[in-house]
Amino acid sequence: MNKSFLNKNSFKTVLLCLIAVLGTTSCLDMETGITLKRSGKVETRITYRLSSEAAEFGRGFGADEPWPFPLTEKDFRFRSVSFPGTEVKHYRTGSESDGSEWIRVDLESKSIKDLASYMDFDLSLESDGKTGRMEFNLPSPVSLGESDEILTESLIRSAGETRFIFSFRPPSKPADCGIGRLDGRDAVLEITLSDLLSSEDRTRWTVLW
For residues 168 and 134, is the Cβ–Cβ distance under 8 A? Predict the structure, then answer.
């Protein structure tokens, strides 16, 4: 089974799960940090933080791990078989004193293209070795279709402070990151789920260096 991460085909399924989760909690953060090496190789760290309510909700599915998303170690390693250009280096889970739980996964890819295939991201790269351009198109309600307007509206009302946080570190210091912000050697984009769903167009993030 080939599970996807936030592409247009899997996004609706994720939204349906989120509506149920966010009905009891708004604490759900998803962070993706991507580092592009001069050799072209890519290191990625994915961190998911869920409230205790969200974790308990996931356990109701009877899965090996307490989350209703493709986040188990088995899922990640299975994708490495399907997309051999990316390897799972580390997989860890843990909990905080407040009952919240986290998953942290470290990946190593041979290229941005391999990472994009592995995660099913709309991610592209242009570089001459010294300067470059990374472009990332996030999913949007446009991909859900007009028939799912009620689904989108319901999720916007319950999304709360659910956030997607992306950071990208190019081989040299970034010069511009459009709608994001620069933080030292990293370009950072932080967007709430409600903002993402309210956008009429796809959110396009461009980083130049």
Answer: yes
DSSP 81: H
Residue among 106, 113, 75 at smallest CA distance from 91: 106
- What is the H or E stretch that residue 106 is in? strand 101-109
- Alpha-carbon gap, residue 99 to 81, rounded angstroms: 33
Q: Which residues contact 50 (CB under 8 A, 6 or more apart)?
A: 21, 27, 28, 58, 67, 100, 101, 102
Parallel, antiparallel or unpaired: strands 28-36 and 163-169:
parallel
Kindly tell me if the per-residue pLDDT of 62 is higher than 50.
no
Q: Which residues contact 56 (CB under 8 A, 6 or more apart)?
A: 66
- How far apart CA 167 and CA 178 sit, in angstroms, is 13
Residues in the chain, overall count: 209
Sheet holding 28-36, edge to edge: 86-95, 101-109, 42-50, 28-36, 163-169, 186-192, 181-183
d(C-alpha 43, C-alpha 151), whole Å: 35
Which range is least confidently modeled, 111-115, 153-157, 171-175? 153-157
Q: What is the DSSP letter of 54?
A: H
Predicted model pTM = 0.77
What pLDDT is stored for residue 197 in this prediction?
A: 67
